[in-house]
Design a protein that fits this description.
The complex is a heterodimer. Chain A is an all-alpha fold. Chain A is built from 22 helices and no strands. In chain A, helix 14 crosses helix 15. Chain B has a two-stranded antiparallel sheet. Classes of the chains: A mainly alpha, B mainly alpha. Chain A: Its main location: membrane.
Chain lengths: 486, 45
């Protein structure tokens, strides 16, 4: 059968499944809490699926595979290991944050610091960052669909728009339900892809020995690539790790879990599952390079995966791998749309317009915001960034320099004040904004990711300003979560 | 290639350093959860 026909058939089947699977989520969403945090009711099974599906995005699927294919295992040092270490920090958030009766992370700033400005500012940061981060998902989807179905990129990106808007309209219930389907497809797709590659080459050992031969060791060594000096590897990993720890899309999953124990196990089990999945991606990247005997084959990293499916896998199984890439992009993008809608409606709109929004009005406004923000991301995706992995690290970096200190400091340090949190956000952002243009002019500065100086400034200003702005009410007001969950 | 020691075809340095770091980062959340839950149980007692 013609491969394009296989891909189209796979996409049609996936669409039908998604439509059927997602419709129940709509019925369950009646309140603001349903929409934002699925009524804090998700069991361990659903929590793991929604956590992993949100995590495993186009960056994981396409950029990690593409970079492993091009640069080898050193990619894992500054991406996946950074993410996993960030997940470890999330455990500390899960340990405390559920004591607060909140539905969004900016709402935590309001409850903990008694500051509307921090809540609104937090909401604005979430909206801006996720509108830009969704570009990665749309671009990832666009590349694979346009390449494999042989249609124009602009037409391809429009089709993801329909998927993500549909699955987001039903709130987190709908997203978490479709995440079960999406992550199952990702899991199966990668398992099949890795198995086919190994079968083709013979064994993992042969794959590595051949990779060593064709690249003179550079694909396998962790220190041989001049493009990634140790400082770059360290600071890029730091950007991803700290960004993961402060990222509302994971923190919201902690809130949507049924209880603290579920949240703990969701994170720990999910990281183990993903640890196995990234091994499949590594096999896909290195193995494809070996099969292509490709030290001379130069493909832009973003287009490596479509190339692998089209020319290396080149079988009907490619249909499953094709939709697994699509599922990874959709399951992350729809989750981010929910966060944009929740933040706008709960953290910003309700402050200015209607102090007491009804459930129906909230859901109505949130759906309009889903529509508007998805459209904005779609328009911005027409001219995609060159490196999705680097682009993503800047956005994760913004979360690291803005949310990390106010969040963890607020959870664990009684002396943290609202002024400390506010100045930490401002100094962190300012440092990143100054460092980035400077780094374009100097090789040394370029090797240091802007998040490194940004985070140091955010941390110093958080502690210094908090200590300078203590008053006698600070500590008594601090840590007074609503004892929502003991 | 003669200067290298290979394990499943990978240079020994890559598998021990990279693989070790990978495994540790993958298991760290589980270790932390075990530690925090144990401490919580002790506090409850």
């Amino acid at each position: 059968m013609n491969n394009i026909l296989v891909y189209m058939l796979s996409l049609t089947l996936y669409t039908l499944f998604l439509l059927f699977w997602g419709k129940n989520g709509f019925k369950k969403t009646n309140t603001i809490r349903d929409f934002c945090v699925a009524d804090n009711s998700l069991d361990i099974f659903t929590s793991i699926f929604t956590f992993t599906a949100t995590w495993f995005s186009a960056v994981s699927m396409q950029s990690v595979t593409g970079y492993v294919y091009t640069y080898g295992y050193i990619t894992i040092l500054y991406s996946v290991i950074g993410w996993f270490l960030g997940a470890s920090i999330l455990i500390f958030a899960a340990n405390r944050i559920r004591q607060y009766d909140i539905m969004t992370i900016p709402e935590f700033f309001k409850v903990r610091y008694d500051s509307n400005i921090l809540q609104i500012f937090g909401g604005v940061i979430i909206i801006a960052c996720y509108i830009f981060y969704m570009i990665i998902q749309i671009v990832g989807f666009g590349f694979i669909v346009s390449e494999l179905l042989d249609i124009h990129y602009n037409v391809a990106i429009f089709s993801i728009y329909l998927f993500i808007v549909y699955t987001s309209f039903g709130g987190l219930f709908s997203v978490s339900k479709t995440d079960i389907l999406n992550f199952t497809i990702v899991l199966l797709g990668l398992l099949v892809a890795a198995t086919m590659i190994i079968k083709d080459i013979g064994s993992i050992q042969t794959m590595h020995l051949m990779a060593f031969e064709i690249s003179d060791g550079s694909l396998l060594n962790l220190s041989s690539n001049p493009l990634f000096p140790p400082m770059t590897v360290f600071t890029l990993g730091l950007a991803w790790g700290l960004g993961t720890a402060a990222n509302p899309q994971y923190l919201t999953r902690i809130l949507s879990a049924r209880n603290k124990k579920t949240a703990f196990h969701m994170i720990s089990y999910s990281v183990i599952v993903m640890g196995v999945l990234y091994l499949f991606l590594m096999i896909l990247g290195i193995g494809s390079r070996v099969i292509a005997l490709g030290s001379d084959v130069i493909i832009p990293t973003n287009q490596v995966l479509p190339y692998i499916i089209k020319y290396i896998i080149d079988s009907p199984a490619g249909g499953l791998i094709f939709i697994s890439v699509i599922a990874s992009a959709i399951s992350t993008a729809n989750s981010q749309l929910i966060l944009i809608a929740s933040s706008f409606t709960h953290d910003i709109y309700s402050k200015f317009k209607r102090p007491h929004l009804s459930n129906d009005h909230f859901i109505y406004v949130a759906r309009i915001i889903i529509f508007i923000s998805a459209t904005m991301s779609l328009i911005l995706s027409i001219n995609p960034p060159e490196s999705l992995l680097l682009f993503g690290s800047y956005i994760w970096g913004i979360f690291a320099v803005t949310f990390l200190m106010p969040l963890y400091g607020g959870l664990y340090w009684q002396k943290a004040t609202s002024q400390g949190a506010l100045w930490s956000i401002l100094f962190g952002l300012l440092t990143m904004a100054i460092w980035y243009p400077l780094s374009q002019k100097s090789n040394f500065l370029y090797s240091v990711h802007p998040v490194f100086p940004g985070f140091i400034m955010a941390m110093v200003s958080f502690f210094v300003v908090s200590l300078k702005t203590q008053d006698k009410n600070t500590i008594s007001k601090a840590m007074n979560g609503d004892a929502y969950e003991a | 290639m003669n200067n290298y020691h290979f394990i499943i075809g990978l240079p020994a340095k890559t598998i021990f350093l990279g693989g070790g770091l990978y495994l540790l980062s993958m298991l760290l959340p589980t270790i932390l959860v075990t530690f925090l839950r144990k401490r919580e149980d002790q506090n409850n007692e």
